[in-house]
């Protein structure tokens, strides 16, 4: 238990020491003649029993800047991957909508052809047209409804492709570096 507490204290002090902007140095862990544990960044007295000496080196400004730049690049890479996934998902949905539209158009064309042929047979004479008047009207309405469904599917596909285009434009604008203002605008902004 004592050793465990010692390690926790040591870790906390080590972390604490690294947070300060101190130059490279050493951290000493030592006990005095009374058995008290000390952790310092200065050398212990000659009669102390040294338990551990940790070496640490603070990062230089260049190293910190490089690390921050790497983190920034990693975040940018993650953002671009997320944006690419969004675009691919939007394209997938647009392709699916396009397939549904093609199927609806083909169905509408088939229903229209079949119904027109059937209406032609049913309405070949005046008597047959009168006798099958309701059926003929229903078949024509069925063809119109199929065409309306196809038109709605076509519109859905168009909107899906438009959404892809808008998403690509939005992402492209987000990824552009900020435009520099001309000096006159900058001066006007300062005066405000």
Please characterize this protein's 3D structure.
The chain is mainly α and 192 residues long. Helix content is 72%, strand content 10%. It contains five helices and three strands, in the order αβββαααα. The chain has helices at 2-19, 61-122, 126-131, 133-175, 183-191, and strands spanning 25-31, 37-40, 49-56. It has a three-stranded antiparallel sheet, with helices on one face. Helix 2 runs antiparallel to helix 4 (133-175).
Name a few traits of the molecule:
single chain; 192 residues; mainly alpha; 2 domains; 3-stranded antiparallel beta sheet; 5 helices; disordered C terminus
Instruction: Report the C-alpha radius of gyration, rounded.
Output: 39 Å
Outline the low-pLDDT stretches. Answer: 188-192
Report the sheet with the most strands, covering strand number, pairing sense and barrel closure: 3 strands, antiparallel
Mean pLDDT: 80
Strand segment tally: 3
Envelope shape: rod-shaped
Calculate the terminal CA-CA distance, rounded to whole Å. Answer: 64 Å
- The helicity comes to over 70%
Quick structural overview:
With about 190 residues, the protein is mainly alpha-helical.
What's the structural blueprint in terms of helices and strands?
Layout: H1 2-19, E1 25-31, E2 37-40, E3 49-56, H2 61-122, H3 126-131, H4 133-175, H5 183-191
Antiparallel strand pairs: 1-2, 1-3
């Amino acid at each position: 238990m004592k050793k465990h507490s010692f390690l926790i204290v040591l870790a906390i002090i080590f972390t604490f020491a690294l947070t300060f902007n101190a130059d490279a140095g050493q951290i000493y862990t030592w006990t005095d003649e009374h058995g008290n544990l000390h952790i310092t960044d200065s050398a212990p007295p000659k009669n102390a029993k040294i338990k551990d000496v940790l070496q640490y080196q603070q990062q230089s400004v260049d190293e910190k800047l490089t690390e921050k730049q790497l983190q920034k690049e990693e975040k940018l890479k993650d953002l671009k991957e997320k944006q690419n996934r969004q675009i691919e998902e939007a394209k997938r949905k647009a392709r699916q909508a396009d397939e549904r539209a093609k199927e609806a158009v083909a169905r509408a064309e088939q229903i229209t052809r079949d119904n027109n042929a059937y209406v032609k047979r049913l309405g070949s004479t005046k008597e047959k047209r009168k006798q099958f008047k309701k059926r003929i009207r229903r078949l024509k309405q069925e063809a119109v409804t199929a065409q309306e469904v196809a038109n709605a599917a076509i519109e859905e596909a168009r909107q899906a492709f438009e959404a892809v285009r808008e998403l690509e434009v939005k992402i492209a604008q987000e990824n552009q570096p900020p435009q520099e203002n001309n000096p006159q605008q900058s001066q006007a902004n300062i005066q405000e």
